[in-house]
Structure formats: structure tokens, C-alpha cells
Amino acid sequence: MGYFTNIKDTASSIFEGMSITVSHLFRKPVTIQYPDRIPRPLKETLPDRFRGFLKVDMDICTACLACMNDCPIACIKIETKKDENSAAKERVLTRFDIDEAKCMYCGLCTEPCPTGAIHFTREFERATESIHDLVYKFVPEGMTIVPFKQPKKETAASSEEAQEA
Ligand code: SF4
Ligand code: SF4
Question: To 5 degrees, how large is the angle CA 143–CA 121–CA 147?
Fold first, then answer.
């Protein structure tokens, strides 16, 4: 008796499974052919506060190191040196790397930046075969960048002097 019951249960479970499979043949597919066959670019559907890869505007980076010092997991590596070729021997940036593979997008590096040079973008698509490609170098190798010098803020004393004059 048990033998025939097993056969009946097996046949009924195969039928049940196959009926679900066959029913999908007649449904509209829900698979999205990403990235080239979606009605709107995915970036347009991201929330306003989406955090994508970090970017540094080197034109306004003062090389203050605040972002590097505030990153809790040491994703940011900044190096500077004195430029021996310049008369003033000014300080230049020789390295500004962000390891985007390691970054946890916490935003702690963006908070202390005095100029807003480091910020999140809406970029998130950078498939690569090597994790090392996700270390972004904002100072090209072998080059140096002169840090941005912020205009000095008007002190209370100087504004008082200006008012007296
Ligand atoms: S977002 Fe967070 S983890 Fe990523 S670099 Fe900035 S401080 Fe570090
Ligand atoms: S990105 Fe901002 S916080 Fe980081 S070194 Fe440059 S100016 Fe300083």
C-alpha cells in the first residue's frame, strides 16, 4: 500500500512542480536586461542621498590630511613632500589614493574637508577583474600637485580696522 502511495505522491509533486514551470512560459518576463535595455538610466532612479564612489577635486584640495586622518579603516593614503625644484620649496602632493574596494561609504572623510574637495558621486559601476583597479589615484603616478591655498579668512581685527578706516 505504501509503495503505491509513494508513486502517487511522487507523480503529484512532479506534476505540481512542472505546472509552475509551464505557467512561467506564458508570463511576461521580469528579468531586466541591465544595463542597456532599461527604460531610464539607473542613475536617474537613485535616491538623492545615494553614496557612490568618492571623488576628490584636486583643484581645491588643500592637502590638510583631515580626510585621511578621519577615515576609520585607512582607505585614504595621502603623501606630500617639499618640492626641491621650486624656489619656495613649497609642499606638494605626491599621492592621494582612495581604496574604493575597502571603503564602507560612511562619509566620515567628507565631513571635515574644509573645501568640500572630497565628496560622493553617483557612480557605482566599475566592474573589474582586479581589486587593485579600485584604488583610485587622484595624483597620477610620478606627478605632483600643488595644494590649493584657501584665501585667509577676514579676522575680527582686520574687519574692525576696515570699519575704522
Ligand atoms: S567613506 Fe568612510 S570608509 Fe570610505 S574613505 Fe571615507 S571615511 Fe573611509
Ligand atoms: S580632500 Fe579635503 S580633507 Fe582631504 S586633504 Fe584635501 S582638503 Fe583636506
Answer: 30
